[in-house]
Amino acid sequence: MNSLTEENYLKALYHLVNENDEVSVNDLSRQLNIKMPSVNSMIKKFAEKKWVKYESYKPIKLTESGKKEASLIVRKHRLTEMFLVEKMGFGWENVHEIAEQLEHIHSDVFFDKMDEILNFPKVDPHGEPIPDKDGNIIQPDLKKLSKCKENDRVELASVTTSSEEFLNFLNKRNLSLGTEIKVLQKEDFDQSMKVFYNNQEENFSKTVCDRLLVK
Predict the structure, then answer these.
(1) Which of 9, 27, 175, 205 has the smallest count of CB within 10 Å of its CB?
(2) What are φ and ψ of residue 31, in 5° steps?
(3) Domains in the chain: how many in total?
């Protein structure tokens, strides 16, 4: 049975590897806000468990075994977020911290039942794909809203950050997953956009458009 600390390291590695092919000990240290010696010690332990490939002064690489372990933690987190929204009435902006705690429950049958009750969802409330029982994950073919052109019509399918501040920003502008968006104007200078959805016009900065994934 993996410890809470090990699971936090695995999940951090999982997210960092998805963002960059190579992950350094320094990257992991910053992500977890843990000092380098402690991170080095844990990564050596992970190497002994065959979860990572690691040599001093070289990037960390997750093995297939490590990816599966990490994916199963992500599965628990995302299923929990979906359950909190769909069955308990929480807003999508309020579920991350609760899921951070519940993801460390060591009971496969508990999360399998949660999955069944939810009718086996493919994505969480933020549009992130949910790994299956074997840790397999299908990444949807999405692009950033910032990559769209004027007159494009797209559907909001996911967000790249689930911070409470950002999700409240979207809530105030009546923007949620599944919303159809039309790009009215794109500024050459700063790549900001004027968009139309739900019978309203909004101006979004490039920072916001980079965080909205559409299909």
Answers:
(1) 205
(2) -60, -40
(3) 2
